[in-house]
From TrEMBL, chains A, B:
This is Acyl-CoA dehydrogenase. Belongs to the acyl-CoA dehydrogenase family. Its EC number is 1.3.8.-. Pfam families: Acyl-CoA_dh_1, Acyl-CoA_dh_C, Acyl-CoA_dh_N. It comes from the Bacteria. Its cofactor is FAD. Gene3D superfamilies: Acyl-CoA dehydrogenase/oxidase, N-terminal domain, Butyryl-CoA Dehydrogenase, subunit A, domain 2, Butyryl-CoA Dehydrogenase, subunit A, domain 3. Keywords: FAD, Flavoprotein, Oxidoreductase. Residues 34-142 form the Acyl-CoA dehydrogenase/oxidase N-terminal domain. It comes from Hydrogenophaga bisanensis. GO terms for molecular function: oxidoreductase activity.
Length: 607, 607
């Protein structure tokens, strides 16, 4: 069993991604070239990733005092990934890229996430280099970004600090100009950085020749103190090893030291680190501090970084999605082969008859269809968002701007929804396996542990909820929300004409109204404390409504196809979502509408 | 912070357990003697269990070829438990017991589950011995049960087999009479057993002098074949080491061999085993097969075993509950101490102000209050059920019979509800910790992993759902359901007179009607395939309705107390349940009412 038919259906039959070749940037592409990329990635994932997923869980990264040791399999997998050219898939031909649409790139990367999410492909490295392509100088692009795209260097994002996880305004890492000639460095204005960064994925390893850290830090103002708040934050390139203007290592180690490895519940194939910048462990060029090169202008660090974070959020959503998919496939396979129990009714009363396979039990079917509905629905959502990224980058101006704004509204859902519901899918995958699912002899408990990270990193559920209800649905006078409502209504108008879908179209219309009414009610007092007290239930209801829309739209595409098992399955997964899931929004929206302060107003001592 | 005040409030102020001393069996008891037991158990749990909870997770049981090695801490903890006399707490004075009510015993054991669920106290051993006290001969009681109560021996339940997890009718272990004198053995009719048993907790270790396995097996009929179905199942005592009629080891090892240790996702302090009975690894008394002594009559094995399983199910519910409580306390403590971010509104705009502790954020409060509502509500439910056990055993005849029937209906909820919602609580505890919660430096990820077992063992959610909707709500012409409805209505009648509770009372009345209507609708066609297709959503809705009732009843007791932080907190947790949770039943009941066959009717190839 492969996820490929689902990917193909969504990309081509639903999103018509092959028609992107009508655009100049993708003119050399066709379904054939896209398929070749998907084939290659599917093969590498199958051969170099999937077989080692349990191994990277048991052979956690460790520090031998000098180096961080990772399994050989991780080295091999990441080399195969880099050799495939996927790190620069979306880049221009002239710098060695494939000019691949982001939607195809995202689909191709999905195979790696499904095979072994924590071996990892190149999400951080690509995102890091993309940021430099957008905000770096030509020299920074050439020296750093291009060497990330070709796999020589890898990249990190260094935002969080131990005392300030999600609160970026409290970043305490400081950057001061590095001497009189600091402005004249060809790699960019040169600073010395001091501070500690926490939760840095791939922060230390020997997988690549060098590591390019992108670090948020504050430049002290004229009074010598860091500027308070996010306005004071700037962005710096801090390479692990210093390089010259040709991108060659100078032989000098920069003052970036591993302070500790985080030992996680899952996702153990990826090193996660606490890094000390400029603490003096590796003094460099006779002075204190880690050497860093300013990217963009002082004080615009967060703006630059957010360029990277939105793609990272879609990437996290896709990772969560494919873990859900992996659990679905594993438990479906198990259910088709494991005999246990007998059917209900008279046929099941005869114990002399052999046991049936558990897929014949209604509750097992329910748990499988729920997983299918969550994971394939989430995949559709992620690919839809990826297609919006292509629209934003290559569409006509108005369409591009609409895509930008739709992405603003949908990104919190693309990040949060799969992280919650594909985790639930993984729990159901364990449940289908019974006791076996709870053992480390089967893969599903690891999927579940791995997936638990996704509700936390790249902005927690709480952060996504505040972003959605506190910012995204309000921005540009609510235009993003209105654009989304227009798209949902367009789907409803088409579906209402299909007898099999009409009732669902009506249910979606009602849900959309309810979300709209709750949005208004939340802000009726104009007081953020009232509105945002239930931002997470709002996020959950909004997410379920978006997924119902995605499923209805996918169903329209499925409906149009000739009869097949796959068509039957997709329509059933859609019906599952409308019958079992969408009605859940009532409970979530009620507290939003009521501006319920049961939690927010409870005094601390009463807990 | 301690859970003790909550336990005291529920036991004494809500359930009036101290009034049990008006009954003859408990006449020597008083609140003072109960408190002394609780004090002792709280202390042992704090000193011998809690400090080693992470250690038993990392030092998993292993087999050195001869023995299963467990950490010294586990030996020490279980010795302290046995020394406390808790193994025989509920037994008669004349055999060394304390004649403690089950409700107090259950409350006392809750401290161990909270401190380290997988070090374990004596649930299986006590349950095993209780079963022998109910169904064994005097000799079996004296030789086996009494030595379990005094801690010399420990006990197991051997039901599942590799090819038949939940499907007991497919048990393939065989038992044949052991020679001509087999009926005359003073320890009970002697048989030889052959077969494999899977998922046996504490199936092999050196914690006690001997292990008393209670094994389900089939005695071949006159045709030499095992009787098909559950009717052919009998129950046997199979000691790991043979004993004489004084309970002394004879020096003979019985033919029970460890075939493998299960390596689990969590709950790693408890050995979980695959055992081979009678495979010839330890030939005994010159013949093939493990020696076992029949308990009760042939063919009545399941009936005897179910005596043990109902208490075991309440025990699993309590374990899940206390893991939820442990996560709640850990995350509350973290939230009170971790500074991060700033309040909403103008006060939070000034980045020069110090960060606030995260308990000041509304969404963190929501996650904490949800945990409180789940864990303390579940604890109330478990203690309520434990109090029913006391009523069943010591109440007046009619009250005792009502208690028996109420327990039949409530046991599936007592087992399943905490296993689902206190797992959700543990996930929220991780979320409150952010990235730190995902590391093994904090206890919450282990609680979450440990708790995932509880939805599986002692009957999965699927089994509990079928039991509830397929059997319990129908049995004795629906009298159990009617009894429960009467109790719920009695609470509603009291609450409706309290202005602060009246709206909740009405909401509960509506929920009860909806559950009743869904029950009828599910069975409207009389076809179990229709009715039971959505047995799990029914179980979830039924569970939430029961918990709403429990909370309303608890709130009546809280309401009556003088103002305090604890009172405020309890009433808020109740309101949380009514505002955020009870409305969820609508979505679950809809598919039950509609007899929705979206899942059940989907052909296998369409997945």
């Amino acid at each position: 069993m492969s996820v490929r038919p689902t990917v193909d259906f969504l990309l081509y039959d639903w999103l018509s991604v092959d028609s992107l070749n009508q655009r100049e940037r993708f003119a050399d592409h066709s379904r054939e070239t896209f398929d070749a990329v998907l084939d290659t990635c599917e093969r590498i994932a199958r051969e170099k990733y999937a077989p080692f997923n349990r191994l990277v869980d048991t052979q956690e990264p460790h520090f031998d005092g000098e180096k961080v040791i990772l399994p050989q399999a991780t080295h091999d997998a990441q080399k195969a990934y880099a050799d495939s050219g996927m790190l620069s898939a979306a880049q221009d031909y002239e710098i060695g890229g494939m000019q691949l649409p982001y939607s195809v790139e995202a689909a191709a990367n999905a195979f790696f996430a499904m095979a072994s999410v924590s071996i990892g492909s190149g999400m951080l490295t690509t995102g890091n280099a993309n940021l430099l392509m957008a905000h770096g100088t030509d020299m920074q692009k050439r020296v750093f970004a291009l060497n990330e795209f070709n796999g020589r260097f890898s990249g990190t994002m260094c935002l969080s600090e131990p005392q300030a996880g999600s609160s970026l305004s409290d970043v305490a890492t400081r950057a001061v100009p590095d001497g009189a000639d600091s402005e004249a460095d060809p790699l960019g204005p040169r600073y010395r950085l001091k501070g500690n960064k926490m939760w840095i994925s791939a922060g230390e390893h020997e997988l690549t020749e060098n590591i390019v850290h992108l670090v948020l830090a504050k430049i002290p103002g004229p009074d010598g103190k860091p500027v308070p708040g996010v306005k004071g934050i700037s962005l710096f390139i801090v390479p692990k090893k210093l390089v010259d203007t040709d991108g060659q290592l100078t032989g000098e180690r920069n003052d970036v030291a591993l302070a500790g490895l985080n030992h996680k519940c899952g996702w153990r194939g990826t090193t996660n680190t606490l890094l000390n910048f400029g603490e003096g462990k590796y003094p460099v060029r006779g002075d204190a501090g880690a050497i860093g090169y300013l990217v963009g202008r002082p004080g615009e660090g967060l703006k630059c970084m957010f360029h990277m974070m939105n793609e990272a959020r879609i990437g996290v959503g896709m990772a969560a999605t494919m873990l859900g998919m992996a659990g679905y496939h594993a438990s479906l396979d198990y259910a088709k082969n494991r005999p246990q129990g007998r059917p209900m009714g008279p046929a099941g009363k005869d114990p002399a008859q052999p046991q049936v396979r558990i897929i014949e039990h209604a509750d097992v079917k329910r748990m499988l269809l729920a997983q299918k509905s969550y994971a394939e629905g989430a995949l559709a959502l992620e690919l839809y968002c990826a297609r919006l990224v292509d629209e934003q980058h290559t569409g006509a101006p108005e369409a591009a701007d609409d895509a930008r704004l739709l992405l603003e509204v949908l990104t919190p859902i693309a990040k949060s929804w799969p992280s919650e519901w594909c985790l639930e899918a993984n729990s159901l995958a364990i449940q289908v396996h019974g006791g076996y699912g709870y053992t480390r002899d089967f893969p599903v408990e690891q999927y579940w542990r791995d997936n638990r990270l996704n509700m936390i990193h790249e902005g927690t559920h709480g952060i996504q909820g505040m972003d959605l209800l506190g910012r995204k649905v309000l921005m540009e006078n609510g235009k993003g929300l209105q654009l989304l409502a227009d798209r949902i209504n367009a789907t409803i108008q088409r579906a209402i004409q299909v007898p099999e879908l009409a009732a669902h179209a009506n249910a979606l219309g009602k849900a959309l109204q309810d979300v709209g009414a709750a949005t208004k009610a939340a802000w009726a007092t104009g007081n953020p404390t009232d509105a945002l007290a239930n931002a997470v239930p709002y996020l959950q209801a909004f997410g379920h409504t978006v997924l119902a829309w995605i499923w209805l739209d996918v169903a329209l595409a499925a409906q149009a196809q000739p009869d097949s098992h796959a068509r039957t399955g997709r329509l059933a997964a859609m019906r599952f979502f409308f019958h079992y899931e969408l009605p859940k929004i009532g409970a979530w929206l009620q507290v939003v509408r009521d501006r319920d302060l049961t939690c927010a107003s409870l005094p601390e001592d009463a807990f």
